[in-house]
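Run log, item B.
One chain of 100 residues. Sequence copied directly from the ordering sheet:
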Amino acid sequence: MTAAPTKEAMLPVTLSLRYAAKDIPDREALVAVQSGLIVDGHKCPACWWKMEGLNAPRKVILAKMRALLRRGLIDGCACGCRGDFELTLKGDAFLTEPPS
């Protein structure tokens, strides 16, 4: 009996996955965290698995979240649990700055 293909293996070839945390722009990751904060009109922390729009494997997303945690741009837990990521004041200020 063969194992079921992974999600990454089933993606179209034209979709480019990101295989390193540095390949995910900070702004894009912070927007993903910010967009996870409103669910059905209620403010909720963002979970890493809701960030599928980042087109990266789970380990890469968690590595990016750890990098943002170290820099003080988000709060939460990047151990692999839900995460419950939220923007800090520093992260919110980063998003309000014009992109360089």
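Observations after the first pass:
- The radius of gyration is 15 Å.
- The chain is about 35% helix and 10% strand.
Flagged for discussion on Thursday.
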